[in-house]
Amino acid sequence: MKKNLLKIFVAACAVFAASNVSAQTYLEDPRYGNSPEERKENVTTLNSFNDYVTTKDYDNALKQLNILLEKAPKATVNLYIRGAMIYKNKIQRATSVDSKNAYIDSLMRLYDLRCQHFADYSNKGRDMGAGYTTQIMAREFSQFRPADRAGVRKYYLQAMSTNSYNVPTDFALNFFNELVEDYKNDEIEADMLLDEYGKLENIIAAAPAEEKDKFEALFANSGAANCDNLEAMYKDKFAANPDDAELVAKAFALMSRAGCTGELFIQIAEKNYANTPSAETAIRLASIFENRKEFDRALKYLNESLATEEDPAAKANLYVRIAASELGSNKASAAGAAARQAISLNPENGYAYLMLAQAYAMSASGCEGIAGQAVYWVVTDVLSKARGVFADDPAQVSSIDSQIASYRAHFPNNEECFFNGLSEGQSYTVKCGWINANTVVRPRK
To answer: What is the 3-state secondary structure of the chain?
Structure first.
């Protein structure tokens, strides 16, 4: 018996010698119990616990662990580190769902106790207290019980709160990924996702580019990033900081992706364009103003985009859009000039001929005498060229044929041609205002 007691005492002393704690010190240290007798007993239990862990006798180790958690929970942080290792081994080897869940619950309770008794623990200058522990809880709960969505959110939110949202960027990204999945599966409302997105933005701002891109992609593809939600999220932020280029750029990117066209988006887009002019933004704004029939504003951005475009085909398309906006503003001459520019750049651009034909037709009423009717010969000439370009597009051909038939009704008849000294097939030059075009006399049949 004396030999056994001696072994226990020697083993206990060895444990504390390794921890730079003398036997006398632990007997006086309240972390190990309320009295010298309790402390000696608890040290013996701790020594047995360590032995069982070393030999991987986890069943007996858990018995010692539970005794120590009750009698000496502040003894050493290694109690919790090794205890977590045991429970994770049990979780991985569990043979039933119930036993696995019981071990997971025990693991979380162990971490709760660690947070309680080692809230301010640090090692070699590294903070490993409650904030660190709650992050472990969130990561491991989501790993071991991913289907418990409420539980996953609970532990992540606990970690975020405990750390005052000062967490590693990868942890923040994992948290947001969980929230996005919950939103897609109707587990949470959009308000929660938007609120957490706003809180996590500053954390992710310090992340590597790859993590930033993933964060923004998660939000953009979540379904919560619709125009109503984005406008609600950025309205006050933009009003308070309209000159914050980073805020403006981020809002513009998200709202563009969502297809927003409202007044707030226009303000943000114009501010972003002023900060960093680009043809892409100019075209986006032009499209919005075209759809709103605000043609003067559309023309501003179309012309600015044109100034930076170098590809002839792309420039031709811009000129077509400029022509359409000029027509929308009832500026036939400017529309005709833009359409002719488009044709000179790309003679195979059928839409350019359509714009030019409309510009001619719009000007016909301003021409006097036979010239006002003769303009429609020019209109149908141009439409015929458009028809040739669109020969493989039945819908366009049908539309053009209908337009030609409609404009033919405005041709002068035989009598009108006769009194103006014109005969069928004769060459004729229409001169009226900006129009100066050669055509052929064709009386209305």
So the answer is: CHHHHHHHHHHHHHHHHHCCCCHHHHHHCHHHCCCHHHHHHHHHHHHHHHHHHHCCCHHHHHHHHHHHHHHCCCCCCHHHHHHHHHHHHHHHHCCCHHHHHHHHHHHHHHHHHHHHHCCCCEECCEECCHHHHHHHHHHHHHHHCCCCHHHHHHHHHHHHHHCCCCCCHHHHHHHHHHHHHHHHCCCCCHHHHHHHHHHHHHHHCCCCHHHHHHHHHHHHCCCCCCHHHHHHHHHHHHHHCCCCHHHHHHHHHHHHHCCCCCHHHHHHHHHHHHHCCCHHHHHHHHHHHHHCCCHHHHHHHHHHHHHHCCCHHHHHHHHHHHHHHHHHCCCHHHHHHHHHHHHHHCCCCHHHHHHHHHHHHHHHHHCCCHHHHHHHHHHHHHHHHHHHHCCCCHHHHHHHHHHHHHHHCCCCCHHHHHHCCCCCCCEEEEEECCEEEEEECCCCC
Q: How far, in Å, CA of 190 to CA of 385, rounded?
A: 54
Q: What is the pLDDT of residues 206-255, one digit of tens each?
A: 899 999 999 999 998 999 989 999 999 899 999 999 999 989 998 998 89
Is residue 137 a part of any domain in this protein? Answer: no
On whether residue 198 sits in a domain, the answer given is: yes
Residue 435, domain member (yes or no) = no
Domain extent, residue 183, equals 165-223
Give the tens place of pLDDT for each residue, 113-148.
999 999 999 988 888 999 999 999 999 999 999 999
Check residue 162 and give left, alpha or beta (phi > 0: left; psi -120 to 50: alpha). alpha
Instruction: Give the predicted TM-score (pTM) of the model.
Output: 0.67
Residue 195 lies in a domain: yes
Please report the pLDDT score of residue 21 as a whole number: 41
Which residues lie closer than 8 Å to 352 by C-beta, 6 or more apart?
A: 316, 319, 320, 323, 339, 340, 342, 343, 346
Q: Tokens 């240290």 sit at which residue?
A: 29
Tally the domains of the chain.
1
